[in-house]
Amino acid sequence: MHPESPSPQTPAPGPKVRWRCAVCGFVFEGEKPPKGCPVCHSPSGEFLPDTERKQLTYDGKPFDVLVINGSTHRAGNTGYMADLAEDVLREQGVPYRRYNLSEHHIDSCWCCYAVRAESCTYPCRNRNDDMPAFHQMLAASKAVIIASPINWNSMSARLKIFLDRTTCMENLYHLGKPGLTEGKIAGILVNGHEDGAIKTAMDIWLNFEQLGYILAPFGIGFRTHGSEFNSKTDHEFFRNDALLVHQVRGVVTNVIGMLRLGIEEKVKGTLIPVTE
């Protein structure tokens, strides 16, 4: 008589992990993040391990391009555009850093300038959040690529706060101090469910223009789906859209071409700041 084969044992469950939705803050405990957030209905890609937040710091290592995903959804359609931008930068061997604003803590601007111009200083008086590190990286990089969704015919609230906090860098020119950003290159990527792409891009560009950035030729790429479609179909549409890929790759390639011309070094100290 053959001995009976041992019964298969149910594997012991793995350790539970606390997962936090980067959109709404909902916390879930389990081996893996949930399939979707029960509070804001964001997909599982928006969940991150719920670790203690540490203030962002810049290590001082040089890089060329700062990529900012300004969407509340780190893994959404705007994040996909940022992913495509990263692909081009890697292919062309350009050192870069990419950040999703939803993963970082940035306070609203204190509006020190409204009290008196001299109060709006660089470094920023608010040194308790992640923005001082972004200030340093804006100054250290040669170009910036901003990706934003369309929210009410303009940029996301997160991106607006980020741009508000660059006021201390713009104000250097008003205080007669050397600027940190003139001659750098900018590229802008926008996507949304319906109208407002050009307005959104121009709202973003106005901020960088006031900082002395140069918009790359053909430096704005945008793609929308359409109000006649349910927004839940946007994800599949954008990820299968050849025009979106063409737009992103074109903008990023143009930014790289411009920064390789070394324009920042050529114009630094020769420009006359004209800002609000």
Mean pLDDT: 92
In CATH, the architecture of the largest domain is 3-Layer(aba) Sandwich
Overall outline: globular
Structural class: alpha/beta
Major sheet size, sense and barrel closure: 5 strands, parallel
Fourth-tier CATH superfamily name of the largest domain: Flavodoxin domain
Brief account:
The chain has helices spanning 77-91, 112-115, 131-140, 157-164, 167-174, 197-210, 234-239, 242-259, 263-267, and strands at residues 17-21, 27-30, 47-49, 65-69, 96-100, 143-149, 185-192, 214-224. The protein is α/β, with parallel strands linked by helices and 276 residues long.
Question: Could you give the topology of this structure?
Answer:
Elements: E1 17-21, E2 27-30, E3 47-49, E4 65-69, H1 77-91, E5 96-100, H2 112-115, H3 131-140, E6 143-149, H4 157-164, H5 167-174, E7 185-192, H6 197-210, E8 214-224, H7 234-239, H8 242-259, H9 263-267
Parallel strand pairs: 4-5, 4-6, 6-7, 7-8
Antiparallel strand pairs: 1-2, 1-3
Helix pairs in contact: 1-8
Task: Characterise the protein shown here.
With 276 residues, the protein is α/β, with parallel strands linked by helices. The chain has two domains: 17-49, Rubrerythrin, domain 2; 65-267, Rossmann fold (3-Layer(aba) Sandwich), CATH 3.40.50.360. 32% of the residues lie in helices and 17% in strands. It has nine helices and eight strands. The protein has helices at 77-91, 112-115, 131-140, 157-164, 167-174, 197-210, 234-239, 242-259, 263-267, and strands at 17-21, 27-30, 47-49, 65-69, 96-100, 143-149, 185-192, 214-224. The strands form two sheets. A five-stranded parallel sheet has the order 5-4-6-7-8, sandwiched between helices. It has a three-stranded antiparallel sheet with strand order 2-1-3, with no helix packed on it. α6 links the parallel β7 (185-192) and β8. The longest helix is centred in the last third of the chain and has 18 residues, at 242-259. The N and C termini lie far apart (93 Å). Residues 1-5 have low confidence and may be disordered.
